[in-house]
Design a protein that fits this description.
Oligomer: single chain
Number of helices: 12
Shape: globular
Strand content: 15-25%
Distance between the termini: 25 Å
Number of strands: 11
Length: 282
């Protein structure tokens, strides 16, 4: 039977999963793939909609009863965190990061970006939060519909084109505060439907092939890259596909545990046992 897989159309996901999607991983079943923004897959995973699925690490407390966290294939790293953007001409007081009274657009209420924002802004939250499709955030901030917007991925390379400036790099804040990499997106395998050890092997082989022959996936990546320029695509892959994609390792799992523990202590997510969050075979 075919394996149902849900990933984003972003270059890091299509680059990583090209070999698996196209039947090039020995021993892996055929794959039926769905492309969707992570806010959509976070919700779909709650319904058990897919066998393998890319979700936000911030959504794990609601998903680990039904899914294993795989130790590979996701997005985690350094220098790759979410940015909080505003218009370059936005008036501000001595502390321009004070968003009291502001409306902030975010890409999803269970995204890691929004969870990091809530941790960073604790004690001085904005007046209003609006969940907005990712591609509408920067134009909305530029047009003045939102006072600020929370963005991820390729927006790091293109936000200046919208006349926007970065109020804060939440990745820099997280790394300075914890010394740990930034856990953004996770790959989960549905319990009872997929052997997690086998799935991890398929994903790792797909990553290995992607690095061994980057040109093999180029046409596929560009077809889903939403009109991204080639330079932006390459920078995107170079930043988000890294050593943690092949193996979260000790630092990666520590970052996941730190994020979920801090969020639970702040009352932002349900409490998740460390063994449940970091032991993918549990």
């Amino acid at each position: 039977m075919a394996l149902s897989l849900a990933i984003s159309p972003c270059p890091n996901d299509t680059f990583v999963f090209h070999a698996l999607v196209h039947g090039r991983v020995p021993g892996a079943p055929p794959v039926e793939v769905t492309y969707a923004d992570v806010d959509v897959t976070n919700t779909a995973a709650e319904r058990g909609a897919f066998d393998l699925v890319k979700v936000s690490f911030a959504a794990l407390p609601w998903l680990l009863d039904d899914y294993h966290l795989l130790p590979c294939g996701g997005a985690l790293g350094r220098g790759c965190g979410p940015l909080l953007l505003t218009r370059g001409d936005r008036a501000g007081g001595p502390d321009r990061t004070d968003l009291t009274g502001a409306t902030v657009a975010v890409p999803g209420d269970r995204t890691t970006a929004y969870l990091l924002f809530r941790l960073w802004s604790a004690g001085r939250p904005p007046a209003r939060i609006e969940v907005v499709p990712f591609h509408e955030i920067m134009p909305g901030v530029a047009a003045g519909r939102y006072d600020a917007g929370l963005v991820i991925h390729e927006a790091r390379f293109t936000y200046h084109r919208h006349g926007l400036t970065a109020l804060v790099d939440l990745g820099e804040w997280w790394e300075a505060d914890t010394g740990l990499p930034i856990p953004l997106g996770a790959i989960l395998a549905r319990r009872g439907a997929v052997d997690p050890e086998a799935a991890a092997g398929w994903v790792r082989e797909s990553v290995r092939q992607a690095w061994a022959d980057p040109a093999a996936s180029r046409e596929y990546v560009l077809a889903h890259a939403q009109e991204m320029e080639l330079d932006v695509v390459d920078r995107h892959i170079g930043l988000y596909v890294n050593e943690f994609t092949a193996d979260l390792g000790e630092a990666g799992f520590a970052a996941v545990a730190a994020l979920l523990d801090r969020a639970a202590d702040a009352g932002l997510v349900p409490q998740t046992s460390s063994s449940r969050a970091t032991a993918w075979t549990s």
